[in-house]
């Protein structure tokens, strides 16, 4: 069981700490324990209850009324909300519950409902990306364990692999070739998988190398399957100099390829002098680029 500080609850629920304290004192909506030094600590159950309360409150239900509901009644109202298209925040919090509980069935059901309502692409960009940001906060604060993070990440990866496999390929002569990879030390490939899906969906060919690819392997793969484009995702925190050195090495080694980099750790200005390197600003900007390639 995880232990949360009141600041953790504030980050995860969007409810300010002083409001949580008022709700705690006036309505007993959460029931923290105290450490030996008299600091409040909160449990998984407190987090889930607060997320539920936040959803109901943001959907117009007064806190005084919520406080009079039983746990079963709160769950029923949450279920009604998450079964509707409703607010994206509701959908994200429903996925957080699935992760905390390691509940695959609940996750599958919620994701399937979202895909039916708003489509696969919108589900990824409007729900899964913000959800993964919230997972990142949980991870950084030490409030999910590796099993929970691996559980939810692998479920999402499975969905992306299925989506990629479901796109039919053809042998059109004008299709472009993309090599996609994470460098050594990089393991988080959900973003890269989504871009692989976008490329294949646009009618082009992907060679997906995946996680932790040694630099020399890139050279060998490109000899066997020469590609016009590379796409690399960089998520692990390293020093700016190390990151730029790696990008410069890619740029100089693969002069005949255009290299797309997916990262939030550097700015466009830092790679503007590298003529064959482009930092991807957003998935939509990359989709727009794919449309210029002609083969759809």
Could you name the key traits of this structure?
296 residues; Multidrug-efflux Transporter Regulator, Chain: A, Domain 2; Rossmann fold; five-stranded parallel β-sheet; two-stranded antiparallel ribbon; 7 strands; 11% strand; elongated
Question: Layout of helices and strands, plus pairs?
Answer:
Blueprint: H1 6-13, H2 17-27, E1 33-34, E2 40-41, H3 44-58, H4 63-66, H5 71-82, H6 88-101, H7 104-118, H8 120-140, H9 146-166, E3 177-183, H10 190-201, E4 205-213, H11 215-224, E5 229-233, H12 240-253, E6 258-262, E7 277-279, H13 283-292
Parallel strand pairs: 3-4, 3-5, 5-6, 6-7
Antiparallel strand pairs: 1-2
Helix pairs in contact: 3-5, 3-6, 6-7, 6-8, 6-9, 7-8, 9-10
Tell me, briefly, the overall form: elongated
The side-by-side strand order for the widest beta sheet comes to 4-3-5-6-7
β-strand amount = 5-15%
Which oligomeric form is depicted? single chain
Instruction: Describe the largest sheet.
Output: 5 strands, parallel
